[in-house]
Amino acid sequence: MFFESEWNGQLVDLGGATSPVQRIVGHADVATVLSGSPDALWKRCQREAGISHGHFKAYFAGRDQAFAIEVKRAVRLRHPVEVGTLGDFTVPQSYRYLDVAKFDRVLARGSRRAA
């Protein structure tokens, strides 16, 4: 599947917090992208999902196919970076490729206190 192969081995920023303040809270490497029915995915991921079964079911309600991104080498930024400082980018359920310069800005801003 294209989605899976496209992401394997990539570095991703991890978003946290919801509107109105959205932040990047860390980054990680994608180990693999898992897919299957919501029930099959829950059986495979429930111990590490970080979400209750009720929230998981609500999130995938009415869907035949579900995806989960398995990460490795996760790093939490010392100071979350506001997504608004990166231009046209929203969380959750959005992705954007960051060029090296923008990723360097995330790392620089995330390692120091905001002014």
Description:
The protein is an alpha+beta fold. The chain has a single domain (2-110), classed as Archaeosine Trna-guanine Transglycosylase, Chain: A, domain 4. The protein contains 4 helices and 3 strands. The chain has helices at residues 2-7, 38-45, 53-59, 100-110; strands spanning 11-16, 23-36, 66-82. It has a 3-stranded antiparallel β-sheet with strand order 1-2-3. It is elongated.
Q: What order do the helices and strands come in, and which of them pair?
A:
Layout: H1 2-7, E1 11-16, E2 23-36, H2 38-45, H3 53-59, E3 66-82, H4 100-110
Antiparallel strand pairs: 1-2, 2-3
Tag the structure with descriptive keywords.
single chain, 115 residues, alpha+beta, Archaeosine Trna-guanine Transglycosylase, Chain: A, domain 4, three-stranded antiparallel beta sheet, 4 helices, 32% strand, elongated
The global form is elongated
The averaged pLDDT comes out at 76
Q: Please compute the radius of gyration using only Cα atoms.
A: 15 Å
The strand line-up of the biggest sheet is: 1-2-3
Q: How many individual helices?
A: 4
CATH topological fold name = Archaeosine Trna-guanine Transglycosylase, Chain: A, domain 4
N/C terminus separation: 44 Å
> Mind telling me the CATH class?
Mainly Beta
Low-confidence stretches: none
Major sheet characteristics: 3 strands, antiparallel
Number of strands: 3
Q: How many structural units, i.e. domains? A: 1
